[in-house]
Amino acid sequence: MSSQTTPSPAWKALEAHRDQIAALRVDELFASDPGRGASLTFACGPLTVDLSKQRMTGETLAALLALARERDMGAAIERLFTGSRVNVTEDRPALHAALRGDERVLVDGEDVVPAMQRGRERMRSFSTAVREGAWKGATGEPIRHVLSLGIGGSYLGPRLVTEALLAQADGPAVRFLANVDPAALDDALAGLDPATTLVVVGSKTFTTQETLANALAARAWITAKLGEGAVARHFVAATANIAEAARFGLPECNVFAFADGVGGRYSVWSSVGLPAAIAVGMPAFERFLGGAHAVDLEFRSAPPERNAPLLLALAGLWNRDLLGIPVHAVLPYAQRLASLPGYLQQLEMESNGKRVQADGSPVEQPTCPALFGEAGTLGQHSFYQWLHQGTQEASCDFIVVARAMGSREAEHAVLLANALAQSEALMTGSSTGDAHRDCPGNRPSTTIVLPSLEPAALGALVALYEHKVYAQGVLWGVNPFDQFGVELGKAIAGRILTAFTAPQAPLHPATSHLLGVIRKAAQGSPPR
Ligand code: F6P
Questions:
Q1: Which residue's CA is the closest to the ligand 1 atom numbered 6?
Q2: Domain at 24-84+302-476: CATH code
Q3: pLDDT digit string (tens) for 505-524?
Q4: Largest CB tally within 10 Å, which of 56, 122, 356, 414?
Q5: Which pTM was predicted?
């Protein structure tokens, strides 16, 4: 990943092609080529990815693939899977794919996979012991609830998997607490009994302020009833920082470690997934890993013109940079995937929300679009008006699950009909003769079909997006594996927090003013 000369030949060709097809409408392309659906639909492990509603032709794809070639995408993909230090600013490899495969991955000459497999074995025996009641709390009772603490990737991943695989969840119920908000803490603890609760602290660094504050509060809640000696029966950690977990008071056997080369937002495949593994069982969790691994193999070996993660990345770049569409909506038509937009918000925006290339030079084009979303059909009754008639265009991903869960076919048909209707409506628009009712259409969308909401398909879906993000990082020349932009706010929050106890601590005048307003407001009588 390095800076390119501006504009490169492939980029110039893309811009010229974009100008040539500026007036093109997708519905007209379908009218002239009814086979378009089939020719722009691609298999990806258990998934099917339909790009036919993208505002592009075969020539567009060819021009985009030329850009990928120009950026040496094949070599970049190989670097990801072979332990190269693709996280150049932090001089680290990105090892998330190694967590779900069995191929050797050499880092500094050493294969990192056996240690990962041992980590997986520990997850298996621990999650099984908790699920079967062999792991007892301090009073000898089995665990009935898991309280999962963590934020960012240490929260979004395990929550997504636990919610999406609810049909498989036959272990202790899992509650998630991410925000450092006393009300959220109270809500998370409400009705739980310390004697039957296991707290899993997920934090790669084990230094994240929000997570540690919640972990200390949960620890006090446990020890108040069960005593200090109960910590080792009621707390475990998923972390890359064993030393900090030890400082918290956890013996090494309660620490499920993972490699430093696994990024936080890519960590659900590691012990960070432990809460989900306890909920659904290790066999289901391993099918989740297996589905991702199938997509890894495809990303690594499928020819570019049939490589779905790469094509998804290219379609995204086309929309963002050539068509100038700054917003992307993720629309899962499955209530159990309601957390997916939030998960992808971190994955995409924290990875590729960057303004400089890996070598520090400015990027040459806009990078990651703003991403938002909502489970269908809820979004239809909220922001779809904006999608259809707003002045700002958005691209959309529709996520559709082909088979109904259980036997409720009729409701599932309603859900599917709505997903299909919306992607059709965004494409065709309408022309009624009434300006208030007209929809311009020609809004690009992708539809991703899962055969059913089972572990392998979920793993494949998440890996598809991970690889899309990596490929876009390569295309934009940015490092998708660092997140220095989040550090500034963390440092300032630390400084402001000291001002709560040391009023003379220097503060920015704007902050000092607002803190005064907040203090005054806090002095008013509380609402009843
Ligand atoms: O928001 C920044 C970030 O570092 C994310 O990348 C990460 O997922 C989150 O904080 C939590 O970090 P940790 O797992 O180290 O507590």
A1: 264
A2: 3.40.50.10490
A3: 889 999 999 999 999 999 98
A4: 56
A5: 0.97
